[in-house]
Amino acid sequence: GLVRMLALSLVLILVSAGIVRAAAGMDELLRGTLDDAALVVAFAGRNLEGVYANATPWSESYGADGSLSYRDREGVWPGDWTVRSARFCTFYRTGDLNGGCFLVARRGDNCFDFYAVGAAFVPGVSSDDIAGGRNWTARGWYVEAEPSCPEDKRQIVDLVLPEDKRVPWTQ
Q: In angstroms, rounded to a whole number, what is the distance separating the alpha carbons of residues 48 and 130?
């Protein structure tokens, strides 16, 4: 009776504390990133170009209707973009190209750092990395204006991948 109820209450308190801590951790990660409304304003109807962390160039056009067109050295792919829970997601209509979701931090008037998030919508970087503009997955800017991105090229690092898929980045 009473012991079981106390034990169940303790479990509920511990689980609730864990959820609160996880939410607080997510709040810390989201600090400095764009929320849903800001993501839509930043990207709907816009054209970006940029580089991945490995210095591969890319460009992408985001339609106001949620469609997109992605281009890199390998070709052009149609797709769709969405915004959900402060995550900017891009998915492609063919099996040739994988999509994903990102936290996005704005660096000045014309620079965006994209941080890939995993299946649980959590990035593989720390809030300090996001705040400092380090360890981004991709960086982009509007094509019609000069980028405002920091000049420090040493921010480019390895992508966070499972151990068996990790490829070292070389300069």
A: 20
Helices (H) and strands (E) in the chain, counts: 3, 8
Give CA–CA dist 61/67, Å, rounded: 8
Question: What's the Cα-to-Cα distance from 94 to each of 63, 80, 154, rounded to whole Å?
Answer: 18, 11, 34
| pTM for this predicted structure | 0.73
Half-sphere exposure for 91 (CA within 13 Å, toward CB): 6
Q: What pLDDT, in 10s, does the model give residues 67-84?
A: 999 999 999 999 999 999
Tokens of 77: 């792919």
Distance in angstroms (rounded) separating the CA atoms of residues 45 and 163 = 38
Structure tokens of 158? 């390895």
| Residues 115-128: tens digit of each pLDDT | 999 877 778 888 89
CB atoms within 10 A of CB 40: 18
Q: Which residues of 138-150 are buried (b: 16+ CB within 10 A; e: fewer)?
A: bbbbbeeeebebb
10 Å Cβ neighbour count for 164? 5
